[in-house]
């Protein structure tokens, strides 16, 4: 009788501790307001099964859980963030097995810790949040560039680049191609004129 | 005061009321009370015109910029794409649409007319008393919208908080854009609007912690910037100008 109780008890303990959910931590750029945060949450609700969503607007960190059986991938998470209108910066998944998966940029940060990356910074002209998104997106398209960050106040673009890949000149070229003058390069008038009114930085 | 205007009296902050844990998104007046939507906590809150909390109703799904008309409250449920109607504090109906919304963020009622800010569809859905008309499409040019968050019907015009184009955009009721306001004033997320009359337009500049007042020509006539923490919506009442601060969880009351 006592043995049976112990077995049942242990069985229950085991079942309660069998993790069935993967834990997701996503850093999202552009989550400035509740419309954005609730919007992101709404788009993830379309993935049936999401639990415990939580969004910290100060840090842009979005956490949630998802059934392990679904094997929701980093790419699927990134696509859903983009569908909501925002830019995924980092994704980390802790699978129910304990295995941790990270997105490419986080892997790049790990390289950075090992001294395999260098920082390049230079000034880029622009005005607003839309400029910021455009500039960073253009810089991020350059081979070897990770974590492009443009500051609206200082106008300084800082990028992390894997050593021996891209040069500052290549990054500046990518940014001018989308309409923004840099320290050493000027965007064409045609591209500049196509920018939205709020992004017109030339006086 | 930015410029002289003989009929406009500038506002000054009279008091700031703590909303005690409410994360306010939208504000409207019904009879002698304020109603505030609390998006973070999925509830509607009834308060006095001095900001004292009287009642709370739960069960919403990210309620956003609300409206009142003819004794009823209209609450857009951003998370579940519907508009709930409340009467005497009870949910009585949902608005019947022939079109699908994707994150309704604001609503306005005027007689038989209804306008809904349809956030992810980058449009206003307008019912002219006979049929529904979509107004605007995604973009940054005149006539286009980029994540609209609020709307107000006023006389023969539709005023839109064209939030991420950082402007107010005004349409006629045929859906044609007739004016944009505030584009050159360095706004960042124009989330909430209130039209007191055709010559007195209010808008919250969410990211820059400001409230701006424009005349009908689009000229900035006052900029409020003290004690604002992510202002998200506002309303002018007989008791003053009421501005809710999302981050500050406060209600600012201004007097002339």
Strand content of chain B: over 45%
State the shape of chain A.
globular
What's the total count of β strands of chain A?
8
Helical coverage of chain A, percent range: 25-40%
Helix and strand succession of chain B? EEEEEEEEEEEEEEEEEEEEEEEE
What count of helical segments of chain B does DSSP give?
A: 0
Share of helix among residues of chain B? under 10%
Domain count of chain A: the total is 2
Question: Summarize this, please?
Answer:
The complex is a heterodimer of chains A (203) and B (256). Chain A has 203 residues and is an alpha+beta fold.
What report would you give on this structure?
The complex is a heterodimer of chains A (203) and B (256). Chain A has 203 residues and is of the alpha+beta class. Chain A has 2 domains: 20-102, Alpha-Beta Plaits; 107-199, 2-Layer Sandwich (Alpha-Beta Plaits), CATH 3.30.70. Chain A has helices at 2-16, 34-45, 74-83, 104-113, 129-140, 168-177, 189-193; strands at 21-29, 51-56, 61-67, 87-94, 100-102, 117-123, 145-150, 156-162. In chain A, the strands form 2 sheets. Chain A has a 5-stranded antiparallel sheet with strand order 2-3-1-4-5. Chain A has a 3-stranded antiparallel sheet with strand order 6-8-7. The radius of gyration of chain A is 22 Å and the shape is globular. Chain B is mainly β. In chain B, 0% of the residues lie in helices and 54% in strands. Chain B contains no helices and 24 strands. Chain B is globular, with a radius of gyration of 17 Å. The mean pLDDT of chain B is 94. Classes of the chains: A alpha+beta (203), B mainly beta (256). Chains A and B meet through helix 2 of A and loops of B.
List the keywords.
heterodimer; A: 203 residues; alpha+beta; Alpha-Beta Plaits; 2 domains; five-stranded antiparallel sheet; three-stranded antiparallel sheet; disordered N terminus; B: 256 residues; mainly beta; Neuraminidase; four-stranded antiparallel sheet
